[in-house]
Specification:
Layout lengths: L1 E7 L3 E3 L5 E3 L5 H10 L4 E8 L11 E7 L2 H14 L4 E4 L6 E8 L18 E7 L7 H4 L4 E8 L3 H11 L4 E6 L10 E5 L4 E4 L2 H16 L2
Parallel strand pairs: 1-4, 1-6, 4-5, 6-9, 9-10
Antiparallel strand pairs: 2-3, 7-8, 10-11, 11-12
Protein name: DNA/pantothenate metabolism flavoprotein C-terminal domain-containing protein
Pfam families: DFP (PF04127)
Amino acid sequence: MKNILIITGGCIEKWDDVRGHTNLATGSIGTYLSNELSNYDFNIYYLSGYTSKQPNPLDNIKDKQTFLGIVDLRDKAKAIILQHDIDIVIMSAAGSDWIFDYIEDKETGEILDNNNKISSDIVPVVHLKKAPKVLKLFKEWKKDLFVVGFKLETEDIIERALKRMKSSDVDVMIANHANSLQNHGVHHHIITRENDVIEAHNKKETAQQLSKLLNEKFNS
């Protein structure tokens, strides 16, 4: 049986022990995917955001872990891929664009120690830096991986998904609108290397169509 890693949900980038920034991803697409893939002969490994929705208990979910921020996601995904000889990665998580750099007191300019809770008496200025791009790393870790990515955009959705698909060496790209974070009924477009485009009308149908595609490719 082929081994699939589903990565889903949102990242939390900590500023101190109790605060941070995040995005609006809930991990719902991951739950749909695990349910649909369980109908086929796959071993499922599940890596989800700290506050994400969790899948139903299923016999073929072999391991479940959570991540906090994008660096934690990267490190845990690499370990799972190499330790469990993963064949397919579905990267549906909403990765962070920026991560914490440092925080300073607005009035004094003093750089604050973020290893504990920063006092609420001050006005902080939070400095961010670019986050690492994880999607393109998967095949650097394991060359024969089959990688499915998601590209969230507000315009030129398919064109931008194709561009990211090429730059990140992805085998299938799911193009979806930013509205899909909070709306299960938004259309998704499943794009293959052969430039086939399968339209799905909601998240559940996206999971059904993608699972069927993967089963036909790896189990037929």
